[in-house]
Amino acid sequence: MDNKAGFTLIEVLVALAIISIALTAILKITSQTIKNTFYLQEKTIALWVAENTINEIRAGIIKAPLAPDLLKEEKEALNQQWSYSASLKNTPNVHIKEISVDVYMTQQHMRLAHLESYLYEP
Question: What is the rounded (10 degree) CA torsion for 74, 75, 78, 80?
Answer without folding.
Answer: 20
